[in-house]
Recover the amino acids of this structure.
């Protein structure tokens, strides 16, 4: 750049508005993209609104799934039942992340003395990834209290949560392991050559990079955990899905299920958006110019 | 001798990569390793830094056998700095964090002191403005200077430089070589693998020509380039000259 640059608008390639040709071009592109997107959305929405009510079963579906009155009486109850889902999620998620990380680290450590742990970790992930969540919940949730434990150790909350933790930590462990393995060998060499021990290398160099890389798949797992918490209702606790089922029977109407679905969406959509934002922010912070 | 290699052997599976390397490096001496791709230069440096175990022979640092199996390798590695061809900076840390990590975690220097030292090192290499940048926001030359600073922050007694300019655009090579020149002036003992013959000739006290895992010829820089004794050295230098790299 020249030290004696004249006013921007005097430069060749800028117009009266002071924008360069490239900026002008990009503005036009943005406007066009916006116009196309708006039009197509409107067209699709109009088609849905016009066509769906013309289907023969619409009247019945509307009455049994979208009943305003049932909705307004049951929704508050559903919301308060959902608090339970959130609670179960809130104590399961940290346990899952911690256990998943532990299993992943055990599987990645190469010291021969730790071979039994490695074997155990591998067996663990194989077993719990191989069983459907719902079966784990049924087996653990009915099986363990069946041993005749006393309160509070026979609580379905406890064993339902344990089942979720067992199952999800196996998935999360695999996600972490993939992250650990994606960190290039040269990073380890760089760290070890500075005299860092293998534990410090793992802690300060490998894991931070691994975790950053797997945040998106990890969040997918957490969002699906948020939903699978509802499966605990099968072994007793009255959370949102169970409450919706009760209300469905009471009013002989499916609207409570729609309400429950809505509640899940209210939580999971912002969650995923928040994660996207986190990831994008991290990327902006640590990298140079983005490639388009 | 600061560093001595005696009859060092190293094989990867059936393939012998180092076949009886013997080499002495005196205090403050700069030795350049030259040789074709695959001749074993990187492997030699990695063995000295204990990143690869050797199969046979000994490596002595200040007379201490560091190739002894079971020796605490971390304690040795902190005395030997190494800079790699592709900059192994930690991408999730700022420049300052990259340089202070090892002093803080290994030497237990406190944060403020480590940062002070890192800043003065980075300033010395013309990176004062970039302390808060992340590696991906730097040019290759800047990254490589940070990598050198990161190594020096551990105050190593010997530096191993593995083709530190070969991943760089030609116009960035100079700034990194300047840093190496400065290190030589400060009396650092260095063992460097390089494809930059002009630089090897300028900076090295001695040049070793490596071919198929053996040191074929080892002589003062002038001698090896002007009066190579061995046929293979002559052929290698001829090829390099033809490729316009001398
Ligand atoms: N980890 C490894 N496993 C198997 N073979 C290896 C390994 N590392 C290096 N080698 C082999 O050892 C030989 C020497 O490699 P080395 O990297 O030391 O050569 P170099 O002289 O540094 O080459 P360049 O100039 O291309 O960097 C090569 O044939 C290479 O394929
Ligand atoms: Mg090499």
């Amino acid at each position: 750049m020249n030290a004696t640059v004249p006013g921007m608008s005097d430069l060749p390639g800028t117009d009266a508005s002071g924008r360069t040709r490239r900026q002008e071009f990009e503005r036009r592109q943005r406007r066009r993209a916006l116009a196309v997107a708006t039009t197509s959305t409107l067209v699709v929405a109009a088609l849905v609104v016009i066509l769906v009510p013309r289907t023969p079963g619409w009247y019945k579906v509307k009455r049994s799934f979208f009943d305003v009155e049932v909705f307004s009486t049951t929704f508050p109850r559903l919301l308060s039942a959902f608090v339970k889902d959130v609670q179960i999620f809130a104590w399961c998620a940290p346990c899952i992340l911690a256990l998943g990380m532990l299993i992943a680290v055990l599987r990645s450590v190469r010291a021969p003395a730790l071979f039994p742990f490695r074997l155990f970790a591998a067996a663990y992930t194989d077993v719990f990834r191989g069983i459907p969540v719902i079966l784990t919940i049924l087996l653990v949730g009915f099986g363990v209290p069946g041993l005749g434990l006393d309160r509070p150790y026979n609580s379905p909350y406890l064993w339902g949560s344990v089942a979720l933790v067992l199952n999800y930590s196996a998935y999360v462990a695999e996600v972490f392991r993939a992250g650990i393995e994606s960190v290039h060998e040269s990073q380890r060499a760089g760290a070890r050559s500075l005299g860092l021990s293998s534990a410090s290398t793992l802690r300060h160099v490998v894991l931070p990079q691994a975790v950053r890389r797997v945040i998106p798949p990890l969040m997918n797992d957490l969002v699906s955990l948020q939903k699978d918490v509802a499966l605990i209702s099968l072994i007793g606790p009255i959370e949102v899905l169970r409450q919706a089922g009760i209300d469905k029977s009471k009013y002989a109407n499916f609207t409570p299920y729609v309400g429950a679905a809505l509640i899940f969406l209210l939580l999971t959509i912002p969650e995923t958006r928040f994660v996207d934002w986190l990831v994008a922010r991290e990327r902006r912070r640590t990298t140079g110019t983005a490639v388009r | 001798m600061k560093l001595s290699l005696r009859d060092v052997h190293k094989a990867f599976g059936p393939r012998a990569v180092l076949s009886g390397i013997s080499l002495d490096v005196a205090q403050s001496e700069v030795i350049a390793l030259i040789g074709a791709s695959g001749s074993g230069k990187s492997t030699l440096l990695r063995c000295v830094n204990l990143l690869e175990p050797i199969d046979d022979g000994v490596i002595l640092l200040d007379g201490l056998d560091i190739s002894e199996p079971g020796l605490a390798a971390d304690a040795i590695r902190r005395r030997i700095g190494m800079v790699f061809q592709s900059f192994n900076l930690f991408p999730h840390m700022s420049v300052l964090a990259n340089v202070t990590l090892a002093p803080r975690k290994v030497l237990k220097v406190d944060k403020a002191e480590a940062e002070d030292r890192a800043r003065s090192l980075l300033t010395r290499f013309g990176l004062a403005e970039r302390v808060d940048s992340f590696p991906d926001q730097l040019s290759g030359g800047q990254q490589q200077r940070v990598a050198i600073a990161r190594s020096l922050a551990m105050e190593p007694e010997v530096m191993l430089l593995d083709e530190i300019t070969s991943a760089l655009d030609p116009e960035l090579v100079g700034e990194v070589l300047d840093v190496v020149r400065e290190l030589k002036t400060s009396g650092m003992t260095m063992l460097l693998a390089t494809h930059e013959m002009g630089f090897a000739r300028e900076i090295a006290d001695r040049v070793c020509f490596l071919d198929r895992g053996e040191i074929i010829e080892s002589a003062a820089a002038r001698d090896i380039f002007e009066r190579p004794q061995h046929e293979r050295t002559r052929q290698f230098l001829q090829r390099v000259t033809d490729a316009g790299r001398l």
